[in-house]
Structures are given as structure tokens and as C-alpha cells.
Amino acid sequence: MGVRSFFNGMIARDNYDEVMEYLAVTETQHAPRFEFDQAPVQLRDLIAVAETPRSEERSKWLNDYAEKSWSVPDGKAEVLLAQDHLNAIRYLNRYLRKANGKLKQEGYLVCSFDTAQKRRVQIFSKYPKFLARIVYFFDFLWHRVSPKVGLTRRFYYFCTRKVRKVFPRPEVLGRLYYCGFEVVSEQYIHDRYCVIAQKKRQPSREQHSYGFFIRLRRIGKDGKKFNVFKFRTMYAYSEYLQTYIYENNDLDVGGKFSDDYRVTEWGRFLRRTWLDELPMLINVLKRQMKLVGVRPLSQQYYDLYTPEIQQLRIKAKPGLLPPFYVDMPETLDEIQESEKRYTEAYLKHPFRTDWKYFWKIVGNILFKGKHSK
Predict the structure, then answer these.
(1) Do 337 and 330 touch, CB atoms closer than 8 A?
(2) How far apart (Å, rounded) are the C-alpha atoms in residues 88 and 138?
(3) CA 278, CA 275: separation in Å to the nearest integer?
(4) How far from chain centre, in Å, is Cα 209?
(5) pTM attached to this predicted model
(6) In angstroms, rounded to a whole number, what is the distance separating the alpha carbons of residues 252 and 237?
């Protein structure tokens, strides 16, 4: 039974604590293991107090620590504690950029938030299942969709006296990377998700969109980068977690990351049905891609290839229909061999090779059910 199926089966009334214990394990299974004995004393003391049982003394100590840490001049703080949980911060990226400016290089930001999974647990443990589904649907629209849509954003903040936005875990981690941090530790402290991030660079200034239609930077012919158009299949800001996911997850069959928690349930459907790649027809029309060819890769994936295959695959335009669907390779070595075989054949006989591969790919997708994960 998959993680999602098991999780859905566990959610019921009166077992909140049991499910939270389950989340504390599953949501951190691919998180890095931070060596606290090598961390600054300030950080070790902060986490030690945070892990003590909740009390007025604990809350006062943490509030005082947060206030003092933010009073340090810009670029001088060694350890910074967020002044509130991230769900309650209206302009989160602005706040994280400010934290980046406060910290010295390699300094630590400690923050916490309630994940979307926890929110789901709270609703399903409070109501009977049939009613919980209805409540969860409208809660999703109100706390996750409304704050991000231009037409409803102002109305949401006008109606909500205290901000209670709901963030999926990948979105918060992605925002941290977007704002110049790298995540070094994730863990539940009591029932709140705690993240320790280290300042590594200046915040990104790239424009970011929550839209269903996205653009991703990919490597094309002659190594030139271009924007690939796709339908969104991952949570917002997930693209900034590429390196983080690679460092903490294994590659699955077919060269994709195993248990990639960045992919939404809707996104899994789009990938199974191959609909997420239809917007790449725009790239074909712009002559940045052709109909058949190797996948357009991100820099992270491209760096996994051998230098020989890297140089070979950029001799031709990438394609919408990759040779992957002909050979169905399972390992990275097999993927490279498949792409090498196709590209060498294409460079010798372009039209004949693409014509042959096109019909094999269409047959495998339509009649054999081959699809991407």
C-alpha cells in the first residue's frame, strides 16, 4: 500500500495523535540528518529549549530569543528565530529576504509552520469523513487558493483578521531556497514542523508564478538555455528544490526521483496521461524543439550525464516525444544509452530516424499504456 493510501486510510475521527506520529516519520523520511553537536552553541541551546514540553516559561524564552535575534545589525546574526509561525506571515518571501539580510554568511534561520498535511489531519479528525471532505474542499479553496489569486487575495486578507495561510511542505522549502537558504534539518517539534535553514547566497529575483501554466529553464541545442512550457504538476516553488531532492532522494526506475513529494495528486494524473507536456507544442512551433527528440533537461539532470553524452545530445534540438517511450529504460545508464542510440541515428538520417521513432512512441503510448511518472 502506498504512503498516500495508507495516510488516507488512517485519517478518521479521534486518532489525531496517531496520525501526527505517522506524519512526523513520513514527512521527514527524505530530510537531511543535521549534526547538532557541530552546530553553534546558540543553535543547540535554542533547539534544546524548543523540544521541552510546552509551558509559559518556554514560550516567553522563545519570544525573547526571537526579539533579541532580530535586533542584531544586518549581516551580523549567527542564529535567527522566526518571530511567528510562517502561516501567519502575510508577505512570506519579503520576510525571508529580510532574514537573509540579517544573517551573516552560513548563519542559521530557525522557523516553523503547519503543513497542509497537518491541516488535513485536523479537519478529518474533527468531523465525520463525509462531512470532512466537504469542509476540506472549501478550506482548501479559502486558505490555499484565495491568498494566491489576484481576484480574491485582497478579499481574503480583508476577511481574515489573523493570517492563517496553509502551505504544503515543498512550497515552504522551495521558498527558502528561492530566498537564498539551504535546508539542513527538518523535524516535527511537538506538532509543528520545524525547519533549520542556512544562508548560502543572496535571494533570487526571478519572477515566480502560481499559475497552472509554467515556464521552466532547460538546455537546448548547442547548450543554449530556453524556457519550456508545461502545465504545473508540482507545488509552487518546487523547481528550486531540484538539488535538495537529488541530494536526499534516490533515482527511481526511469531516471525520475523516487517518492518525489513535490508532485501533487493532480500532477500525477497529468503525468500519467501525458497531458502536462502538451504546452511544449509552443516550443515546437517556436522551433526551439522538434516533435521527436531527447528530453530537454534541467541543468541538474544534465550534470548527471557523462561528458560524452552531454556533448552528443546538444548536437540536435530536444523533442516533445523522447526515445524513452521506445526503449523504456530503467536506470540512468540505460537512459543515456537509449538517447545515444537515437541521437547517433538521427545525426546520420534525421527524417528516417524521427519517422520510425514517432510511430513506435505513439504505439507504445496509445496501445501499451506507456507513460511518465
Answers:
(1) no
(2) 19
(3) 5
(4) 14
(5) 0.81
(6) 22
Let me know: does 219 contact 302? Beta carbons within 8 Å: yes
Rounded to the nearest 5 percent, the helix, strand and coil shares of the chain are 50, 15, 30
171 and 57 part of one domain: yes
183 and 283 within one domain: no
Per-residue confidence of the chain (373 residues) as pLDDT tens digits?
444 444 555 455 456 777 777 777 777 777 777 777 778 899 999 999 999 999 999 999 999 999 999 999 999 999 999 999 999 998 899 999 999 999 999 999 999 999 998 888 888 888 888 899 999 999 999 888 888 887 888 888 888 877 778 899 999 999 999 999 999 999 888 888 999 999 999 999 888 877 788 888 999 999 999 999 999 988 989 888 888 887 777 655 555 666 778 888 888 888 887 788 889 999 999 999 999 999 999 888 899 899 999 999 999 999 999 998 888 888 889 999 999 999 999 999 999 999 999 999 988 877 766 665 5
Strands annotated E in the chain: 77-81, 103-113, 181-189, 192-199, 213-219, 225-231, 290-292, 319-321
Is 342 within the bounds of a domain? Answer: yes
Three-state SS for 103-158 is: EEEEEEEEEEECEHHHHHHHHHCCCCHHHHHHHHHHHHHHHHHHHHCHHHHHHHHH
CATH number at residue 168: 3.40.50
Contact criterion met (CB below 8 Å) for 354 and 291? yes
Nearest Cα neighbor of 118 from 37, 188, 43, 23 is 23
The C-alpha atoms of residue 230 and residue 213 are separated, in whole angstroms, by 6
Retrieve residue 20's grid coordinates: 501526527
Q: The C-alpha cell of 301 is what?
A: 539532470
Q: What is the rounded CA–CA span in Å between residue 57 and residue 45?
A: 15
Domain count, the chain: 2
Supply the range of the domain harboring residue 95.
Answer: 3-199
